[in-house]
Amino acid sequence: MDLLTIYMIVGFLLAAYSVVANDSIQTLGTFLASNSHRPWWLLWIFASSILLAVIAYSWFANGGDPAYGRLENFPVPIGGVSWLHVIPPLALLVLTRMGVPVSTTFLILTVFAVTGGETSNLYKMLTKSGLGYLVAFVSTLVLFSFVFHRLTKYFHKTSNQQRPKYWVVLQWLSTGFLWSQWLIQDLANIFVYLPRELSLGWLAFGLVVLVAMQGYIFYTFGGKIQKIVTSKTDTTDIRAATIIDFIYGIILLIFKEWSSMPMSTTWVFLGVLAGREIALSRYLVDVSFHETIKKIVSDALKAFSGLVVSVVLAFGLPWLFQRFFV
Question: Where does residue 270 rank: exposed (0-12), middle (13-18), buried (19+ CB within 10 A)?
Answer without folding.
Answer: buried
